């Protein structure tokens, strides 16, 4: 068959060849050892937190090698494309400080010399590459109709097999003559372009995965689709073309892509192009209802959406550090040894990524977030809470704006200490957590342990209440009153157990805390009273 003639028949409009594009996109001028990585999401929905997880590998690998981290939008699945999903993806990467330094930038102008970075605008390039494969006999047109049933195609394949024993397991259209192809074209039949595979699945070869190490893989023998009938390439061809021309050195992608690796490698060999390095990452999982392990799902798990953590009010740094911890297990020890260092100072490495699929653990994320928030100043907390509230709780935002000084004092309770409290892990918690500082609490009867003793103590405590000027004086006064009531009470419970309240200052403080906050546990009680002020304290004691 005259393959050059076939290539011109299939792509008469393509006048630029493979070498044109290989020369147009020059090799990057980078320092020795510099890696070029990319994040290439599809705009088919929200940005999965697993994409942030993978992007961190790209980001650190490029940054620590003085390389380039760029973004490409893989918008070839036009049927599933969601409006503005690309812009949201870029914004999410920037929000989590995993900002690409080249490529697609959402609503902003693209940056870089290797664009266009949107795949739907690169169709002529893909066609030129596909045309090249046809011209060397490594690709062919497939006229199989999508409406044909699987059995129809099997029957046709069996018919072709009678004529040629070389097509067993292959696409039936690979045996078409140029006359048959011309006839189909004259009838304007739509066609896809498929790779003419030369692989033998009985043969195996070794492949060095940057995460999993040496892996044995079977040769590909599938005639994979390179161009769909609408002229749009699926991932296999698109990523080869774009990663080659854009100078990518490492492709970081999920383990779910590993089964298609053999076909991708055969495609590189067919073009006589150097293979890329691949890092197939473990997949973030969680326990299902039956105790099994499954992939974190876009459909089932709200936390799969990177925006979930923004809505809940997790500090972005907490989410990033948690994901780094999933990638490099020694990050936790490094953080303990470097409590004030920025996470970018950590010596991240692809080689330290474990092979097991990590489990998403909210308890671990919450602990990391509590520690990060505990190190913030009261004003930082205020600014973060206000930013969150402006988007997700406007009435609370208005309150914070009107009562800024008061709110900052509230957020500073137990903060400027050697061991600040670690109660808050998300900004969405703050309003309810400090509810007693914004509103007078209602105390249910169930919350009043030992109702008679509670009432007696509060009655004695509120009598002419004046807040002492120091915490020590206040505490000593509570202690004296506790002992006095412990000796003097006529309550039957005290008569049965005289030591139950004698000198029990902690119990006395619990009664005061319950009266003022409606809770048995709270931050520093004396500081709470100082912020509330004598008038408000008296009002609550008299309630």
Largest sheet: 4 strands, mixed
**Overall number of domains:** 4
Count of DSSP H/I helices: 24
Would you tell me the overall average pLDDT? 89
State the CATH superfamily name of the largest domain: HUPs
Task: Please tally the β strands and state the result.
Answer: 13
Structural class given helices, strands, pairing? Answer: alpha/beta
Based on the coordinates given, report the CATH architecture of the largest domain: 3-Layer(aba) Sandwich
Gap between N and C termini, in Å? 97 Å
The largest sheet has its strands arranged as 1-2-3-4
Poorly predicted regions are 156-168, 487-491
CATH topology of the largest domain: Rossmann fold
**Strand portion:** 5-15%
Gross morphology: elongated
Helix content: 40-55%
Written overview of the protein:
This protein is an alpha/beta fold and about 550 residues long. It folds into four domains: about 5-10 and about 125-195, no CATH class; about 35-115 and about 205-215 and about 225-375, Rossmann fold, CATH 3.40.50.620; about 375-425, no CATH class; about 440-543, Orthogonal Bundle (Arc Repressor Mutant, subunit A). It has 24 helices and 13 strands. The protein has helices spanning about 5-10, 20-25, 50-65, 85-95, 125-135, 150-165, 180-185, 235-245, 260-270, 310, 315-325, 330-335, 360-375, 380-390, 395-400, 405-410, 430-435, 435-440, 450-460, 470-490, 490-495, 505-515, 525-530, 535-540; strands spanning about 35-40, 70, 100-105, 110, 140, 190-195, 205-210, 215-220, 225, 250-255, 275-280, 285, 295. The strands form five sheets. It has a four-stranded mixed beta sheet with strand order 1-2-3-4. Helix 14 (about 380-390) packs antiparallel against helix 15 (about 395-400) and helix 19 crosses helix 20. The longest helix is centred in the last third of the chain and has 18 residues, at about 470-490.
């Amino acid at each position: 068959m005259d393959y050059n003639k076939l290539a011109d028949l299939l792509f008469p409009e393509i006048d630029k060849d493979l070498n044109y594009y290989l020369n147009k996109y020059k090799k990057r001028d980078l320092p020795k050892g510099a890696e070029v990585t990319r994040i290439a999401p599809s705009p088919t929905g929200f940005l999965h937190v697993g994409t942030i997880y993978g992007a961190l590998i790209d980001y650190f690998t490029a940054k620590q090698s003085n390389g380039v981290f760029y973004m490409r939008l893989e918008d070839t699945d036009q049927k599933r494309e969601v409006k503005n999903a690309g812009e949201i993806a870029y914004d999410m990467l920037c929000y989590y400080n995993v900002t690409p330094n080249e490529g697609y930038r959402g609503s902003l102008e693209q940056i870089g010399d290797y664009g266009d970075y949107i795949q739907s605008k690169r169709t002529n390039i893909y066609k030129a590459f596909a045309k090249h494969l046809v011209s060397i006999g490594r690709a062919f047109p497939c006229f199989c109709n999508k409406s044909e049933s699987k059995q129809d195609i099997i029957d046709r394949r069996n018919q072709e097999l009678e004529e040629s024993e070389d097509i067993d397991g292959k696409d039936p259209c690979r045996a078409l003559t140029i006359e048959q192809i011309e006839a189909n074209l004259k009838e304007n039949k739509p066609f896809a372009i498929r790779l003419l595979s030369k692989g033998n699945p009985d043969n195996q070869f070794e492949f060095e995965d940057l995460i999993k190490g040496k892996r044995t893989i079977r040769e590909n023998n599938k005639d994979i689709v390179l161009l769909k009938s609408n002229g749009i390439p699926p991932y296999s061809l698109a990523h080869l073309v774009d990663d080659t021309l854009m100078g990518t050195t490492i492709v970081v992608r999920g383990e779910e892509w590993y089964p298609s690796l053999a076909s991708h490698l055969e495609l590189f060999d067919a073009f006589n192009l150097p293979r890329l390095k691949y890092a197939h990452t473990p997949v973030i999982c969680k326990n299902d209802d039956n105790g099994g392990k499954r992939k974190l799902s876009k459909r089932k798990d709200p936390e799969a959406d990177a925006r979930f953590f923004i809505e809940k009010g997790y500090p972005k740094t907490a989410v990033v550090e948690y994901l780094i911890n999933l990638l490099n297990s020694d990050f936790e020890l490094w953080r303990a040894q470097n409590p004030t260092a920025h996470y970018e100072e950590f010596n991240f490495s692809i080689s330290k990524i474990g092979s097991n699929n990590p489990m998403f653990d909210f308890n671990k994320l919450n602990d990391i977030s509590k520690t990060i928030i505990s190190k913030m100043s009261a004003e930082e907390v205020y600014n973060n809470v206000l930013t969150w509230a402006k988007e997700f709780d406007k009435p609370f935002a208005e309150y914070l704006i009107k009562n800024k000084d008061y709110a900052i004092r509230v957020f500073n309770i137990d903060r400027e200490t050697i061991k600040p409290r670690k109660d808050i892990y998300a900004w969405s918690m703050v309003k309810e957590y400090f509810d007693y500082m914004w509103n007078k609490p209602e105390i249910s009867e169930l919350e009043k342990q030992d109702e008679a003793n509670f009432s007696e103590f509060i009655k004695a405590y509120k009598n002419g209440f004046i807040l002492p000027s120091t915490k020590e004086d206040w505490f000593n006064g509570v202690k004296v009153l506790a002992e006095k009531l412990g000796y003097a009470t006529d309550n039957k419970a005290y008569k049965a157990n005289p030591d139950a309240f004698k000198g029990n200052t902690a119990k006395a403080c619990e009664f005061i805390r319950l009266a003022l906050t409606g809770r048995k546990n709270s931050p520093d009680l004396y500081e709470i009273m100082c912020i509330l002020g004598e008038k408000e304290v008296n009002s609550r004691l008299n309630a």
